[in-house]
From TrEMBL:
<keyword id="KW-0418">Kinase</keyword>
<dbReference type="GO" id="GO:0008972">
    <property type="term" value="F:phosphomethylpyrimidine kinase activity"/>
</dbReference>
<comment type="pathway">
    <text>Cofactor biosynthesis; thiamine diphosphate biosynthesis.</text>
</comment>
<protein>
    <recommendedName>
        <fullName>hydroxymethylpyrimidine kinase</fullName>
        <ecNumber>2.7.1.49</ecNumber>
    </recommendedName>
</protein>
<dbReference type="InterPro" id="IPR029056">
    <property type="entry name" value="Ribokinase-like"/>
</dbReference>
<dbReference type="GO" id="GO:0005829">
    <property type="term" value="C:cytosol"/>
</dbReference>
<dbReference type="Pfam" id="PF08543">
    <property type="entry name" value="Phos_pyr_kin"/>
</dbReference>
<feature type="domain" description="Pyridoxamine kinase/Phosphomethylpyrimidine kinase">
    <location>
        <begin position="12"/>
        <end position="232"/>
    </location>
</feature>
<dbReference type="GO" id="GO:0009228">
    <property type="term" value="P:thiamine biosynthetic process"/>
</dbReference>
<dbReference type="InterPro" id="IPR004399">
    <property type="entry name" value="HMP/HMP-P_kinase_dom"/>
</dbReference>
<dbReference type="InterPro" id="IPR013749">
    <property type="entry name" value="PM/HMP-P_kinase-1"/>
</dbReference>
<keyword id="KW-0808">Transferase</keyword>
<dbReference type="GO" id="GO:0008902">
    <property type="term" value="F:hydroxymethylpyrimidine kinase activity"/>
</dbReference>
Amino acid sequence: MTETLLLIGGIDSGAGAGLLRDHATALSLGLSVRVVVTALTAQNDCGVRSVNFTNPTMIAAQIVAAVEAGPIAAVKIGMLGNAGIVRAVEAALPNCPIVLDPVLSSTSGHSLLDPSGLLCLRRMIPKVSVLTPNLPELALLSGQPQPQSAELAESLARAWPIAVLVKDGHGAGHTSTDYLFQPNCPALTLPAPRQRQSRRGTGCTLATALACGLAQGLSLEAAARKAKLAVGTYLSSIVPAVDCHDKSVDSSA
């Protein structure tokens, strides 16, 4: 039987990230999908033009409809946007593995979670199974400066009583090493050659692939390794160049 993944997040009109990237990843890994739309965005590789958040009542109704349609094997949460949405999602989550990819800003730097939403998200973290922040997100969620070493990142990640997969996509060097921290377990390192090109949607791909592995019954370690491979496959695919000549796009956000 094909397992079903529930995807919660925003629609990226440029199709580079968000639910569309999540959906493509899940289908490529053999899962069926149900979605909950938290926001509509007008954006592309140059920046974010506009964001329109879904009413929290509608979000709760979408989750109820998804759960009513049949068993959910795992949940992947992305963009939430504000406190009302965070609370609506938290209150309606099914009892299954939950992967939270804390979308705090776009690749271009546009804020995608307001301050009150950040506070609510911090309170929600202990209720999920796995958190997948990059280094800037880890710092914001912890309320601490961005860690400059793996040891400092580990000290921040282990403050939560859950598994934390820290992404090194914003790092430097020839190798990109992600770290999986689990309570009462040694850290698991996940190295891979650092790709030269930058591409939106890598965080979405990693978190969704991780959720897919958990939905299919893999251990967290095996699911993390499989997710890292999925990101490598995504980054190695051919990407057409984007000409950001239209200066009206919000590239400074």
